[in-house]
Design brief:
The chain is α+β, with helices and mostly antiparallel strands. It is built from 22 helices and 14 strands. The strands form four sheets. Strands 8-12-9-13-14 form a five-stranded mixed β-sheet, with helices on both faces. A four-stranded mixed β-sheet has the order 4-5-10-11. The chain is globular. It starts with a strand and ends in a 6-residue tail after the last strand.
């Protein structure tokens, strides 16, 4: 929902932030549009509107039923928080009249709005599936959403056209926000508003996801954080948070930690995610070989140019028109059809996901008997198959059913530091949070946490099996060791087939 205020500025309703606005009706600093009209033009591009059909948190709504919100709603919130961050930094630092102030605003707010346009359906899960389909590609040629974001900004797209209409140099300037630090022309504090451990992305998704997941009492004082942001000089590489807001910062990091433990790494969320990965990997195995479309592709996708088939085949080189036509709706429509597909593995998992019959997930973190639990699950599956006279080898069951899922993350990571300072002491040198003595809580959040699950089909009794036709084909899929690392860490791969899923972010 959007509406125009009495002064002509567009306003977008938001349950988290209230009315979202981007004041600025007059063109500034060689831009051909006012900020309000510019942001509205970006919102109306196909790349942004597509995000309405991609959920922010993958399959988390299978467990937390109100987590139905989209990446579109999140992106709009991130742009709003970024606007408030840069406005406050400029005000607190006495830079409102700086020559480049409005240029920084245009760039930062646009980059924040566009930061997720490169995501595909099921977000990070899909990235890892595509990496598993093309395991021999060098890391710099593997699919990732940030590369797709850069393509959508720099190539011939509606986003690129909207940026150039405002200023011919904007595509290149916005692209700087999504490049690695070493590849940028020059680093600057405004980039950290879009990507850092205290960026607009986190400040929105922590509040939004906690609210939508129904976590009571999970929040932090956003106003306090915004009030105490500043820089010491216009060209600094980092913005600074005044120590007066340390308690609000601690609350932010703690709620983020709670979200990972209670929501993103919830055992059933992990099980649902692994099942989706397995289904799509099996489909790719049947449809793609050595990068070429093969036999069963036509049966599975009904047409040669289906956007998911093109993505599975071409990865990051997929045609952008096809990529923009791919949403979660397309994949769920395929899953509905795959319930009647001839391949038992595809059929079984399509039924399971459509009917939300999720695997069991047993936590084995810190246990020495994890492998024993995997073997117990395998032997139970063998008995179930023998009882149902279903012919699957132990090797296939081991490959397709007993899933090892490992998640690693730190709630605060050194190397991507938050800077603390005291603004009324201009001669004081800001200190990184990990080396500052202001917070014992942050010291504990620096520890790496590891969560391990064994995921396998729920065990039915013989009576249950005879009463349900759906349970005849209870077990079929592909062993996946899902090695999950927080979205800001690089995922590692090991095992027969390794995926990494960074939950929602």
């Amino acid at each position: 929902m959007s509406f125009s205020s009495s002064v002509g500025t567009q306003s977008y309703a938001c349950s988290i932030h209230g009315p979202i606005t981007f004041p600025g009706n007059q063109p500034r600093n060689d831009h051909n549009q006012g900020l309000d009209g510019f942001i509205k033009a970006l919102i109306n591009t196909d790349a942004m509107q597509r995000l309405r059909w991609i959920r922010q948190n993958g399959l988390a709504h299978f467990v937390f039923n109100t987590m139905e919100h989209s990446r579109f709603a999140h992106s709009l919130g991130v742009a709003f928080v970024a606007r408030r961050m840069i406005d406050r930094i400029l005000l607190n630092s006495g830079l409102e009249n700086e020559e480049d102030a409005w240029t920084w605003k245009y760039e930062t707010i646009a980059a924040a709005l566009l930061h997720d346009i490169g995501h595909g359906p099921f977000s990070h899960s899909l990235e890892e599936i595509l990496r598993a389909i093309h395991p021999n590609l060098p890391s710099d040629q593997q699919f990732d959403h940030e590369h797709m974001t850069l393509r959508l900004i720099q190539e011939n797209t509606q986003v690129n056209e909207a940026l150039k209409k405002c200023n011919a140099d904007l595509p290149e300037r916005i692209a700087q926000f999504f490049m690695k630090k070493k590849d940028r022309k020059k680093d600057h504090w405004r980039y950290r508003i879009v990507s850092s451990q205290l960026d607009a992305d986190r400040l929105d998704y922590i509040l939004r996801d906690a609210r939508m997941a129904g976590l009571k009492g999970a929040g932090f004082d956003l106003e306090r954080i915004l009030q105490h942001l500043y820089v010491k000089a216009p060209e600094d590489e980092h913005f600074i948070l005044d120590r007066k807001a340390i308690e609000a910062l601690e609350a932010t990091l703690l709620v983020n930690d709670q979200l990972y433990r209670a929501v993103y790494y919830h055992r059933k969320v992990r099980a649902a995610t692994a099942m989706m990965q397995i289904l799509l990997l099996r489909v790719a195995h049947l449809a793609i070989k050595d990068g070429e479309v093969q036999g069963q592709a036509q049966e599975l996708f009904k047409r040669d140019n289906h956007p998911l088939l093109q993505l599975m085949q071409l990865g990051r080189d997929v045609n952008l028109e096809a990529y923009l036509n791919l949403t979660e709706n397309h994949i769920w429509a395929l899953i509905e059809e795959w319930r009647n597909y001839s391949d038992q593995i595809v059929q079984d998992y399509a039924h399971r996901l459509w009917e939300r019959r999720l695997h069991s997930a047993v936590e084995i973190s810190g246990h020495d008997d994890g492998r024993r639990k995997e073997e117990e699950a395998l032997q139970a599956l063998l008995k179930e198959f023998n009882r149902g006279n279903l012919h699957q080898t132990e090797e296939d069951l081991r490959r397709y059913y007993v899933l090892s899922d490992t998640s690693r993350r730190k709630s605060y990571k050194e190397g991507d530091s938050i800077y603390l300072g005291t603004q009324n002491e201009p001669n004081e040198k800001p200190n990184t949070l990990e080396f500052d003595q202001s917070s014992r809580i942050v010291y504990m959040l620096r520890e790496q946490h590891k969560i391990e699950y064994v995921i396998y089909p729920h065990q039915h009794s013989q009576e249950d099996s005879s009463s349900s036709a759906a349970s005849v084909m209870e077990f079929n899929s592909e062993l996946v060791s899902t090695e999950t690392i927080d979205k800001d860490n690089q995922a590692s791969s090991n095992g027969n087939s390794s995926l990494s899923e960074s939950s929602s972010k």
